[in-house]
Write a structure and sequence with these properties.
With 120 residues, the chain is mainly beta. It has no helices and 8 strands. The chain is 0% helix and 48% strand.
């Protein structure tokens, strides 16, 4: 049975850094984020101060799951609609998905290097 996604009210303050809002059906989604987060007292940064290639975390391969787990399911849809009255979201960040509907395949990846530089 095909189902419709119906949302009466949706309020989102912010979506950023490779995040997605989707209302409806999706066959495949691959959000990806590569970021360096620097926190420094009296922060002043020159462009390209922290290149990705200086940090091995960004060149390591992502681990793969050893196969999909077998899940036996039965779905009984009493309504042809996916009905949502109201959603309020403060924010979505870092390779995340806000999804109302069917999502068949998801491969979300994020790598973030946190650097904190404190004065002595």
């Amino acid at each position: 049975m095909n189902r419709n996604s119906v949302v009466n009210k949706l309020r989102i303050n912010d979506i950023f850094l490779s995040s997605v809002l989707n209302i409806g059906d999706t066959v495949h989604a691959e959000p990806y984020l590569k970021a360096i987060a620097v926190q420094q007292e009296g922060a002043y940064f020159l462009p390209h101060s922290y290149p990705f290639e200086h940090y091995p975390i960004f060149t390591r391969p992502f681990p793969h799951l050893a196969g999909e787990p077998e899940i036996n399911q039965t779905h009984i849809h009493h309504n042809e609609n996916i009905q949502v009255d109201s959603i309020r979201i403060i924010g979505a960040s870092g390779s995340s998905i806000i999804h109302i509907g069917t999502l068949e395949n998801l491969d979300a990846r994020a790598r973030v290097k946190h650097i904190r530089i404190l004065r002595d």
